[in-house]
Automatic annotation (TrEMBL), chain B:
The keyword Membrane does not apply. Keywords: ATP-binding, Nodulation, Nucleotide-binding, Transport. One of its GO terms (molecular function) is ATP binding. This is ABC transporter domain-containing protein. It comes from Pseudoalteromonas rubra. It holds the Pfam family ABC_tran.
Length: 229, 227
């Protein structure tokens, strides 16, 4: 009940944020859409197959959204000086981060859908819209444990060192490179990739990143620097 | 009641806090006095587990979920609210984070008491420093905390607002487990103080529950700060 309430309030907080930063929201969205269209155009003229290129591109868009959301949540909590008070709440900060990232997921998916729609309007690829969308959702579910792990470690580093910008740029670039490495490797179907090794590595990645996050948070707490900005 | 049997906090800058046998009584307001850097905030952070401790024997432990649900915390006079949320939504979010049901009637009562109800739909970023402080205090007390820690709660408040806060705290303390406050505002301290601890260089140098001794402690503090 409280978790649902928290989720709803976090959604409300995010909508308020987008609304009050409406100019930044609209201008950055336009810039982002143009950038993604440009990158897609460059990649498609590189001779990559239409569908795999599109799927990887869209997975990058939505994964980068999740990564950026988490990193920006940690940054906002540091700059608003709410971290110390949050650590006195009954729910752990890592769970609060999870709820906040879920609250922001619809926006990330909307951006991806908008980008995909624009690509279909501008480039008229020879595949169907829903065919691509289905593959993007499957590939996203496949990569989400790794993207989340990577973002969690970045959040820990932000809490410890209070710097976010460098993580946003590096993280997005790394996710993009991974997506294109997947395409270049011949983009094996997800069903082939879903084996014991995948599940084990996803679990190790999540547990490992939580451990690093926990250690970084504890180190900051020990120094009494949680509330520093 | 909060019992701090022993607490030791050390920072890399060589500051060392070491206190023993502190009692923050039920239904009382205990003020921690001291000059800047004497260890007041570190004492509160140490009790709440917000900083590394070398030794901590505290009852109840604020690491437990049940105690965290009944906490109300203000650190270093900061209004720890999201600038984009309204006063009302901030209170709601704070209550939900404490696993408490948000009570609209109670919100109205407290917000009116602090004189912030007219700004209930205003986002935090549009409020003045004093009003942000009032918004945070409203959010904090909406969640019905039993244990209250207020570190410099009157920073940025005008005289009338300080008086409103002290009147509210006096009334609230009758039902609370413990209220611990740090402040430099001597008039505010005189209005609310039941017990006090005087801290200097990480150690308790004086404590009592008599008003006459509080005046002496405040004089002492004035002299120390003047030096």
């Amino acid at each position: 009940m409280f978790a649902l309430n928290k989720l709803m309030l976090e959604c409300l907080l995010y909508i308020n944020e987008l609304r009050s930063y409406w100019f930044e929201t609209v201008s950055s969205l336009l810039f982002y859409l143009l950038l993604m269209l440009g990158i897609y155009w460059m990649a498609s003229s590189d001779g990559l197959s239409n569908k795999t290129n599109l799927v990887a591109h869209m997975t990058w868009v939505v994964s980068a959204g999740l990564f950026t959301s988490l990193v920006m949540i940690a940054k906002t909590d540091v700059t608003n000086k709410v971290l110390e008070v949050m650590h006195t709440f009954p729910m752990s900060y890592s769970k609060i981060l999870f709820i906040k990232s879920v609250a922001r997921a619809p926006y990330d998916f909307s951006v991806m859908l908008l980008t995909l729609l624009l690509i279909f309007v501008a480039f008229k690829p020879s595949v169907t819209f829903f065919d691509v969308l289905g593959d993007v959702v499957v590939l996203y579910l496949y990569v989400v444990p790794f993207v989340y792990s990577f973002a969690l470690v970045s959040c820990g580093l932000i809490i410890a060192f209070k710097r976010a910008e460098v993580f946003v740029v590096l993280g997005n670039a790394l996710i993009g490179l991974s997506a294109y490495a997947y395409v270049k490797s011949g983009s094996p179907p997800i069903a082939v990739l879903l084996d014991g090794i995948y599940f084990a590595s996803a679990l190790v990645s999540l547990l490992g990143s939580y451990l690093i996050f926990y250690k970084l948070r504890s180190w900051t707490l020990k120094k009494g620097a949680l509330g520093h900005i | 009641m909060i019992c701090v049997d022993s607490l030791e906090v050390s920072y890399p800058n060589k500051f060392h806090l070491c206190v023993e046998d502190l009692v923050f009584k039920s239904a009382k307001i205990t003020v921690v006095l001291g000059k800047n850097g004497s260890g007041k905030s570190s004492l509160i952070k140490g009790i709440l587990g917000l900083t590394g401790t070398e030794r901590a024997m505290i009852k109840p432990s604020f690491e437990k979920v049940a105690q965290k649900e009944s906490l109300g915390v203000m650190i270093e006079g900061t209004d720890s609210l999201y600038s984009r949320l309204s006063v009302r939504d901030s209170s709601k979010l704070y209550s939900v984070h404490r696993n408490q049901v948000f009570d609209e009637k109670r919100f109205k009562e407290i917000a009116e008491n602090f004189g912030i109800y007219d700004h209930r739909n205003t986002s935090i970023q549009r409020l003045s420093t004093g009003n942000k402080r009032k918004a945070y205090l409203t959010a904090l007390f909406c969640s019905r905390p039993k244990y209250v820690f207020l570190d410099e709660p009157t920073l940025g408040l005008d005289l009338e607002s300080v008086h409103k806060v002290s009147r509210f705290l006096k009334e609230y303390s009758r039902h609370a487990q413990s209220i611990v406050i740090t402040s430099h505002d001597s008039n505010f301290i005189k209005e609310i103080c039941d017990d006090y601890y005087l801290i200097d260089n990480g150690k308790i140098v004086d404590s009592d529950d008599r008003a006459s001794d509080l005046n002496k402690a405040l004089e002492f503090l004035k002299d120390v700060c003047a030096e």
